[in-house]
Amino acid sequence: MAQLTYREAVARGIAQEMSRDERVVLIGEDIAGAGGVFKTTVGLLEQFGPRRVIDTPISEQAILGAAMGAAMTGLRPIAEIMFSDFFAVCWDIVVNQMAKTRYMTNGQVTIPLVVKSGNGGGLRFGAQHSQSIENWAMAVPGLKVVTPSCPEDVVGLMAAAVRSDDPVLFFEHKGLYASRGEVPDGPVEDVLGKARIRRGGDHATVAALGMMVPRALEAAERLAAGGIRCEVIDVRSLIPLDARTILESVGRTGRLFTVEENPRALGWGAELASIVGDEAFWDLDGPIVRITTPHVPLPSADSLEDLVIPSVDRIVAEVERAMQA
Amino acid sequence: MTLPLERHPYGEHDLVLPPKSQTTHDAADIDRDTRLLMYRRLHEIRQFEKRAYDMFMQNLVKGTTHLSLGMEAVAAGFGAAMREDDYTFATYRGHAHTLARGVPMEGILAELLGRANGLLGGKGGSMHLTSVEHGMMGSYAIIGAHLTIANGAAWSAQYRGSGQVAVCFFGDGTTNIGAFHEALNYAAVFALPVVFVCENNLYMEYTAISDITAVPRPAADRAGAYGLEPVVVDGNDADACYLAARDALEQARSGRGPVLIEALTYRHGGHSRADPGKYKPPGELEAWLAHDPLKLYRGRLERIGVPYAALDEIEHQVGQAVDAATEAAKGGPLPDQAVAYTDVWADGGHSWRN
To answer: How far apart are CA A246 and CA A244, in angstroms?
Structure first.
């Protein structure tokens, strides 16, 4: 076991896969010589050399197109989009090309690649460098979407993403880069499409993703002191979605709360609410409650950003209000 | 300042006329078999596209089609020069480039008809023709994207040391989208084995490229910005295309980086089946028809002594192949409903949750 930061875990996961498979290559802006603007790729250039770890121009379409073309022809690239907000300038390659080409060619083309990206808020970067965009990706058939919340999952899910034969969008939470956690020694493996129960409880199910997971866990601790026992589920993977784990949990607790960093409309929690409403309606003892950022762009001032992104206080308050109603 | 349509009414822009000489490459160093292959390809593309047009008018071809009538020589010339394992990346105007890699007609036509025996099983259609086994890595229908993807295939070839080259065809309109510029810089920086071929047919879609581009030669005049040589070829002369392709492929394959070629050509019809092409000034189409790729090439082959009967026989064989493909396509069954749900994922399925 080693204590790693979340950002160190990213490099560890990539190194693990690059060591295992020579077809794995890494491209992105400032990822080689500089070790990444978020320092998630430190040491990889030194370990794997300039043929496999490549600094690119600020050309997001060219980066993702290169990754796709290489994936179609025998490599297994990892590409970095520095801030997930920048997907907006290369979304064509993701949505129209990577996601659809296998289907449109009747299975002739396989696209095993990973796009890693710094996602989410809390760093006071303002509305163009703070978004949680995993819902954009979730809306497009043909993309797999994962968001680890702790260093061990970063390594394991990176391994699973690299080994997947489908395009995977790997959202690292910028607000978690400095957080620490235990990572087992030796190769770490994991699977896509598996949620994890982080804390058991029988009164309410709280489903959370990314930076909302540690907040939901802290909220659950406080709620337990007041007698409300929450089961906290780390969703981890939006596509494939482990609906079964959430449905089973709701079957035990009778209540579902989602904690989403994204703006309100069409967040992943809305899809979860729809599934639970359709398939576990008679298990529910009360309304499903979505705790989200309101439907606004993210403000930059710390006081305002803290106001809109779900906080521990707000999670506690919303769960208490709903459970007491 | 005056805007283009203040300078002249829509459709009354200056004519761009074809090159005058058709004999320039008569003595070129190209063996006869290669020339006969190109002659066959020219006719395959021409006759195929005409049949696709006719079947569209009969309401058998669904959706839309973007034909290469008048532009056959680019595909024929490059296709003949490419190594079997080189990669082709084409646009939605990709029937010609698919045929030029030797993909059988039946599957292409059946795909246009939405049949199970289509090249893509009825899941891609006219704008996405792909046949990986022939090196035809796809037809891409969002302007610019596939230049970046061709770079990736070239990067992979470079990384694997395979000696393959990616050849990427696109229209003049593509030179004004960001991905074009990102892709050229990227390819140049990493000396990727990729050949970019701009098929300049003078029209973006319904608008003359000269009216909305800052330089007269949309591709060649941008080459210098990426450290590349400006190359313009007669895109209606299959030999000119073949020779340009041979040089470009040699350069790319030898590790000297990408090549950008502007092939000047003309589409006889509109942008897509919905477009009658009314923006073409009087006299332009006629001038280009006089420089038609098939006529031009037949004239050359006759001058160098290929018997008329041999050329007639090729045309006849192609006609028979198109007829046979038409019957096979028309006779193909509709796709099984289950295929709507296959191959979203590499495991063959479409499941996104448990």
So the answer is: 5
- For the cut 90, the answer to whether the pLDDT of residue A211 exceeds it is yes
Q: Is A138 in contact with A268 (CB distance < 8 Å)?
A: yes
Cα separations (Å) of A32 from A63, B113, B157, B281? 14, 48, 21, 53
Token code pair at residue B83: 């190594």
**E-assigned strands of A56-192?**
76-83, 114-119, 144-146, 168-173, 180-183
- Alpha helix (H) residue ranges in chain B: 4-7, 32-57, 72-81, 95-100, 105-112, 145-160, 178-189, 220-223, 238-253, 284-289, 293-303, 308-330
| Cα–Cα distance, B62 to B112 (Å, whole number) | 7
Beta strands in chain A (DSSP E): 2-5, 24-28, 53-55, 76-83, 114-119, 144-146, 168-173, 180-183, 196-199, 204-208, 230-234, 237-239, 256-263, 289-293
Strand partners, A27: A54, A79
Residue type, B302: E
pLDDT of B21 higher than 80:
yes
- Rounded to an integer, what distance in angstroms lies between the CA atom of residue A145 and that of residue A237? 6
- At B25 the three-state DSSP class reads coil
d(CA B300, CA B214): 36
Interface test with B, best of A27, A73, A101, A192 (most B CBs within 10 A): A73
Closest Cα in chain A, distance from residue B221 (Å): 21
Complex ipTM, two decimals?
A: 0.97
- Taking alpha carbons only, the member of A172, A179, A174, A177 closest to residue A130 is A174
Angstrom distance (rounded) from CA B14 to CA B4: 11
Say what the pLDDT of residue A190 is.
98
Look at residue B276 and tell me whether its pLDDT is greater than 90.
no
Token representation of residue B257: 């980086």
C-alpha A300/C-alpha B128 separation (Å) is: 43
Among residues A270, A242, A267, the alpha carbon closest in space to that of A256 is found at: A270
Question: What is the pLDDT confidence band of residue A121, given thresholds at 50, 70 and 90?
Answer: very high
Neighbours of A302 (CB within 10 A): 11
Q: Provide, for chain B, the percentages of residues in helix, strand and coil under a 3-state DSSP scheme, each rounded to the nearest 5.
A: 45, 10, 45
Do the beta carbons of residue A145 and residue A237 sit within 8 Å?
A: yes
CA–CA gap between residue A180 and residue A201 (Å, rounded): 25
CB A314 within 8 A of CB A206: no
Distance CA A197, CA A153 (A): 13
The CA distance from B130 to B151, in Å, is 17
For A237-259, write each residue's pLDDT tens digit.
999 999 999 999 999 999 999 99
Q: How far is B63 from chain A (nearest CA, A)?
A: 15
Nearest chain A CA: its distance from B160 CA (Å) = 9
Nearest of B93, B38, B91 to residue B68 by alpha carbon: B93
99-118 of A, contacting B, C-beta below 8 A? 101-110, 112
What rounded mean pLDDT belongs to chain B?
96
Q: What DSSP state is assigned to residue B96?
A: H
- In chain A, residues with a C-beta closer than 8 Å to the C-beta of B139 are none
Q: Which residue of B has its CA nearest to A62?
A: B148
Buried residues in A116-134 as b, exposed as e (16+ CB within 10 A) = bbbbbbbebbeeebbbbbb
